[in-house]
Amino acid sequence: MLTEDDEDYFTEPGFHLPGTPISVQKLPSQSSLPMEPLGNHDSEAGSPPKEKSGVQQQEWILERMEGDSRPMKELPLTLSEKRRIRERQQLRMRKISGWNSWKDSQHRAARRFRERTTEVFQYTEMWRGSLHRIEGHFGSGVQSYFSFLRFLVLINFVTFLLIGGFIAIPNMVFEELQLKINSTRPVIAENQTCLLDYNPIHQGLVQFYEYVMDLLSGTGYMELTYLFYGFYENTAVDLNSFSYNIPLAYLITTLFYFLLSLVWTVIRSVNRFKQSLVNEDSSLSNYSQKVFVGWDFCISEEHSVRLRQNSLRYELKMDLEEEALKRRQAARTKLQRARVYILRAIVHLLVLALLLAAFYAIYVATGYSQQLISQDLVSNNFFLGLLVQYLPSIVITAATTILPIFFNVFSRLEKYSLTWEIKLTLIRCVFLRLASLVILLYSLWTQITCNGQKDEPDCKTCGYNKTYPCWETRLGQEMYKLAIFDFLTVLIVILLVDFPRKMIVQHCSCKLIQLWGQQEFQVPSNVLDLIYGQTVCWIGTFFCPLLPLLNTVKYFIIFYLKKMTLLKNCCPAKRTFRASSSNFFFLLVLLFGLALSWVPILYSIFTMTPSKACGPFQGQSFIWDTIPNAIEPLPQVTKEFLYFIGSQAFLVPIFLFLCILISYLVALANSYGQLVKELKVYVQLEGRDKYFLVKQIKEMSEANENRHKADHGEGTWAHLITNPF
Amino acid sequence: MGAAGSQLSKELLSEYQELTFLTKQEILLAYKKFGELLPKEERSRVLSVRIPKAKILTLPELKANPFQHRICHVFSTSEYQDDSMSFEDFLDMLSVFSDSATPEVKSHYAFRIFDFDEDGALDTHDLEKLVNCLTGEAEGTKLSESEMNQLIQNILEESDIDKDGTINLSEFQHVISRSPDFVSSFKIVL
């Protein structure tokens, strides 16, 4: 439609493009970066390169890019172009002063150093290859599960290092060297009953199965290892220039690793949080994101590509359907709407009833298990004993596997939109998981403190139930069992469910079984499992200091197990899991788990009487007393300063100040949101203006063209676009 | 420049490191892989030979990719428009798709890959082709016409900020900037 002559006009920088309608968006103001850097990749193949205009355009781009202060690699140009720009820059560099060029070279060297260090770090990154491989098969959504797992391994390992370095090893060394200089235990004048009963080692002949049982439940000989709270000493070593107070170290390390986990997780989630803030209304760009970002370029398997295409198509179709559904919903009559609301209410009640039933079962099971453990009938029978020991874990695991199935079924009845459906099920599952831990702890608390009544006969003498001579260790054992059982379930599920399922599906062509199909790797439920395990670990760490080590090993093994079952047994999920959308949600749940684990620990630090028969805090009335005791011998000024920091006079103003800061920042964020909205409107107006102008140009040019035709008989409006007046 | 042996010269290597997002190991790996695509007699001239498109597409990383033709086309600097690739084109491609490339560079090239008719804007035809690549182009896997129209209309409604009926680079980058997954998914690693 255009003649050869006309193309010259179009290949000039601003108006490069052939084709109608007039490309409004190619006006120079609109393009932030040049689109066609080198050569003219015209769609009509075979046309020879256009010498003159190509070179002109290139020069124009190079000039524009030269002044760019970004590092060369960040320019969207080809290598040879970058090389030319660099040559030009170097030429110019020679002209400018020595100081500037020195500064520039310094700048460059620093950048290169940074790059090299990150390169080294990348090299040492754990499981990099595995993550790449998983990404190639299943996309970045599943990969996010594995990087989350890696994060947990790291955090557990660092916690273990802290505990090992500051608590376990010093304790070990002092014991070896017989350095028990002074015990911080005060002389106990009260009755000795609380001290006497504690002797966990089995009396008499020990049978082999008891060893196994002790190993699995942390009793007997296991109880007297560094694994548990009760084994640590309340010693303080005070050589002439070196003093080390184990209880103080124990307490401060605990507080410190909690703080560290908090900061680490927060830092990790801040980035995501920023993104989700920017995403303020992600529903508004839902389709564009799916289409523009939907393709995972990492996927390289032909089979996976097909699966990915299927899942994308499925997703797009579902979204379109959902939209239609919403429109239909809006058109619902009052009666229909009332019916849906009633249905929802019923479902909510059902879910609530199920949750309460589960919680009651956990509560009762924990109570039973605590009462039955000490009975002879139970402790003499291996399987019965094991069953009783693991009763709470079994009930919790059963509840958390069975109830989600019901939740899934229910959520379909509720007629929410699909995304809401998934979210709601997820929220219910999270609540179930974390709340069941709370119930377990509450059940233990009622046992240990006689329901919080210190006047009960069992609790009167010691301040806690005297059937628990070392209650901290008992708590640690419960968490230890939960962690072990969690690991065992993963193992059993993989061996007895995933593998056979794959086998059956592969070798049996029966229709029903094919319909059942291969297993899908469900990222959300798997991540929830991890978060649950981590919360158990955090709760248990104070009472069972080596639990982080166990957890590190556990997650390390789980990584390989999950990777194996993923690559061997699973097929990609039908509905793909977007890495970021829920990543933040998971970190939020993790933070929630962390906060949850603070509660029992702070509670026992500040209000419970530490057991008098064992542990680093024996003999004190509260665990927290360690800190004031440690501050006591300090010089007057330091002491007063520390007391001031801990007093209301300091904390209340700080609290108020933080509140003010938060409200200020919230206001700021809101105003930015407002600004964004206004700017959007502004851009729209601009666009309309531009459209109007171009339309006018077109009209004028057409009018001109007609006149032109009348004059010369031949001509196109194109001349007038570049030169309308 | 033209290193005669099978090894890259040190200066060239450091230059590539400066001009691309690739690390030393990645460049050497790319060099090896590129050499393997060449017939035996040409292996000594890796830096000056162009590999035809058909050969490039045998790479496992590109073989199954539905955007393979677009990728070749965008990164090829061939004068004859035959989408053949030189080693430097190849490096350019890997650099853009590497882990450490900035979102700006990535989104710029993503836009060019998705701009099928290369007019500097994504119009309805580009979007249709793009969606077909995503869902598979066969008759059975395509979206139906009404679905496609609805989808494209939705996309334009969401992303076409200035309401001119097409999505230009800055609008595209705006959408991308709000999608944190982009950097991790717009990635090809050898």
Walkthrough of the structure:
The complex is a heterodimer of chains A (725) and B (190). With 725 residues, chain A is mostly helical. Chain A has a domain at 149-197 and 234-291 and 347-622. Chain A is built from 24 helices and 5 strands. Chain A has helices at 7-10, 51-66, 79-95, 98-124, 128-176, 193-196, 208-217, 246-278, 286-293, 302-330, 334-373, 376-379, 382-413, 418-448, 457-460, 471-507, 511-516, 523-541, 547-569, 579-606, 626-631, 636-646, 648-712, 718-722; strands at 182-183, 235-238, 243-245, 519-520, 570-571. Chain A has a 3-stranded antiparallel beta sheet. In chain A, α5 runs parallel beside α18 (523-541), α7 (208-217) runs parallel beside α13 (382-413) and α13 packs antiparallel against α14. By secondary structure, chain B is an all-alpha fold. Chain B folds into 2 domains: 10-96, Orthogonal Bundle (Recoverin, domain 1); 103-185, EF-hand (Recoverin, domain 1). Helix content of chain B is 54%, strand content 0%. Chain B has 11 helices and no strands. Chain B is globular. The model of chain B is unreliable at 1-5 (pLDDT under 50). The interface between A and B is large, with 88 and 84 residues.
How would you concisely characterize the structure shown here?
The complex is a heterodimer of chains A (725) and B (190). Chain A is mainly alpha-helical. Chain A contains 24 helices and five strands.
> Largest sheet of chain A, described in full?
3 strands, antiparallel
Largest sheet of chain B: none
Question: Strand order across the biggest sheet of chain A?
Answer: 1-2-3
Radius of gyration of chain B: 19 Å
Largest interface: A-B, 88 and 84 residues
Q: Any idea what the radius of gyration of chain A is?
A: 35 Å
Q: Structural class, from helix and strand content of chain A? A: mainly alpha
Instruction: Please state the overall shape of chain A, judged from the principal axes of the Cα atoms.
Output: globular
CATH homologous group name of the largest domain in chain B: EF-hand
User: Helix amount of chain A, in percent?
Assistant: over 70%
What is the global morphology of chain B?
Answer: globular
**Which segments of chain A are poorly predicted (pLDDT under 50) over 5 or more consecutive residues?**
1-53, 714-725
What letter string, H or E per element, gives the SSE order of chain A? HHHHHEHHEEHHHHHHHHHHEHHEHHHHH
First and last CA, distance of chain B? 25 Å
Number of E strands of chain B: 0
Structural class of chain B: mainly alpha
Q: Can you write the helix and strand succession of chain B as a string?
A: HHHHHHHHHHH
